[in-house]
Amino acid sequence: MIKDDFSRLVSVVNRLLSKDGCKWDKSQDLKSLRGFVFEEVLELIDALEREDINDIEEEIGDILYHIVFISKLTKRKDSLKKAITRITDKLIKRHPHVFMNKKDMTPTEVVKEWENIKREEKNTESIGYGLFPFLSSLLIAYKLGVRSKSFNFDWENVEQIFEKLEEEINELKLELKKKRRNKDAIESEIGDVLFVIANIARHLNINPEIALMNTNKKFIGRFDKMNQLIKTDKKDIRNLSIEELEFYWQKAKRIKSF
Question: What would the pLDDT profile of 107-118 be if each residue is shown by its tens digit?
């Protein structure tokens, strides 16, 4: 039974943190675990991306271990029990269409209601509440789009956002054409372009953070393959022209799809 397995995990963590437990585990604190937790979440994301069930189960286990571990380090009695109670109550409260009024809602309406309830809980009208700690700017731009939509402040369709993207790119080009370039102004225009792109992704139901993560991995794979091909031809990548590099880049793309 899941209850028994969970109890066994809790017992193992208790043993690790006991007087005769593991010195490394006992040396950890709430701050030292931040990097490990972040790493485990990224590994779970990678497993989800690959749809590898075995890896997904393993990474879920790793995260569950950290959850139990953190609850013990809070030094508060029943922290784990309180955490489970809070998330259960939160899920019920933020899904009134399921647990209360039994109303049929579209996924878009569900997200809008979720954001409205969350805003009421936090007692704030700021659209940026709780977004900035540890989140990438690209992901924040995406989430700001989700939240602005809950206020009905959004583009009607993705075609309208492409028009906005063209407008922002033209403004960037104008800044670059100036004889005396203003770095702050250029930075601002680049930010505008990235913000619009994040919202294009949102309208297409694509998480821009995941999309960029995959593109980064694809670039690394192709670049490393290109470099390998160059070394096979007994050449140094640093001594090649851009035309030669493009030749090897295209060859790397043909050999393997990353």
Answer: 888 888 888 888
